[in-house]
Amino acid sequence: MILDRFRVTGRVAVVTGAGRGIGAGAAVALAEAGADVVISSRTKTDLDAVAARVADAGRRAHVVPADLSDPAAAAALAQAAVGEFGRVDIVVNNVGGTYPRPLLETTPEFLEEAFRFNVSTAHALTTAAVPFMTDGGAVVNISSNMGRVAGRGFAAYGTAKAALAHYTRLAAYDLAPRIRVNAIAVGSVATSALEVVVNNPEIKGKMEADTPLRRLGEVEDIAAAIVYLASPAGSFVTGKVLEVDGGLQAPNLELGLPDL
Fold this sequence. Notes:
The chain has helices at 21-32, 44-56, 71-85, 108-129, 155-175, 195-198, 201-209, 219-230, and strands at residues 12-16, 36-41, 61-65, 90-93, 137-144, 179-186, 241-244. The radius of gyration is 18 Å and the shape is globular. By secondary structure, the chain is of the alpha/beta class. This is SDR family oxidoreductase. Keywords: Oxidoreductase.
């Protein structure tokens, strides 16, 4: 059965930024596909709620509250997975994000912080997990549509996500053939990060109108892509950036920053 190729039964996944949004959706989806999960974010109560959903899917979740802006904390999740489950098979580098800021207010320090939070943390966890991926494995990095299109105010965020996308291609070469590395360029998804947008009918309507599929993404849209890339269904895919963005070829959210 073709659907069996989407199963990850008996495997162990580490998901960062898993307290809510895409990370939480990824953890639950992987559990529904058969994996036990290590989930981490800052807030334990959020993680406990996700762990309950994982348990409802019949799998185990190991909760690790941590400040994942620190690459060392991200790297430690690999050992946590081995300590709890004895192995690592899947890594989902979801933690990241950076607030928009006009270019001339984007200091070198702000740019470096964006790079560390979006790229260095992914590298730290990936390199820590690889030695434990004795049966092979899959890494899925969560990049962004803003890593390939241009919009005002996104210099730090877009640059960091573009770096993560190319890091994916380079890491895939270094880790082939045993470990696959792919990324998802995520479009506008209705999560708490877009709460202001979702609750404003005018802005939401314009974003939907500017998206070819005429809607915002849902967490499950991204979670389904993660399961595909992490499972045997994606076994002939590595070094690729899958665009799950509703067909966007330009930003669908303008910040209204003026000309100089």
